[in-house]
Design a protein that fits this description.
Layout (H helix, E strand, L loop, with lengths): L3 H4 L2 H13 L4 H8 L3 H13 L18 H19 L10 H10 L6 H11 L25
Helix pairs in contact: 5-7
């Protein structure tokens, strides 16, 4: 079901809560029209009672949906630095450590998930796929059927 702020504007919901406060509409009718649960109804009603004029169900994203260009450049720079270490044969580094990379970026004030770093690494060619391990096959050699010793 769609979110409430996408289906109704603030005025439509205010009119319904005004009707509920006057006794014209019942809770069940409003819940059915808005498509919300009893708990959510009372949470919205409490918000409405606190300040009816400023009541709003509009939704604003708190965190940005995309990383800024400076953060992207910093991730790219860190990945390319890590790639240079992995490709250099002198130190015994054979794989990427994305968690350590995330921690180094966090020290610079950049908060990103390891999954984001892995996606950027694949796009930049800074990723080594895991080696496929051979399946372990067991072969039992016996002199006769049932003899395992």
């Amino acid at each position: 079901m769609n979110q409430l702020h996408k289906r109704f504007n603030d005025d439509q919901i205010k009119v319904r809560f005004q009707g509920y406060c006057r006794g014209v509409l019942t809770r069940a009718e409003i819940q059915e029209v808005l498509g919300i649960s009893k708990a959510w109804f009372f949470a919205l009603l409490r918000e409405y009672h606190q300040d009816p004029q400023a009541f709003s169900v509009s939704y604003r994203r708190v965190t940005p949906g995309r990383l800024s260009a400076t953060v992207e450049r910093e991730i790219e720079r860190a990945l390319l630095q890590e790639k240079a270490m992995v490709e250099d044969q002198r130190p015994p580094i054979s794989s990427y450590n994305y968690s350590a990379l995330r921690d180094r970026l966090a020290k610079k004030g950049i908060s990103v998930s390891v999954t984001t770093i892995i996606h950027r690494a694949r796009r930049l060619g800074c990723h080594k796929p895991r080696k496929k391990r051979r399946a372990h096959d067991r072969e039992v050699l016996t002199a006769s059927i049932g003899a395992l010793v």
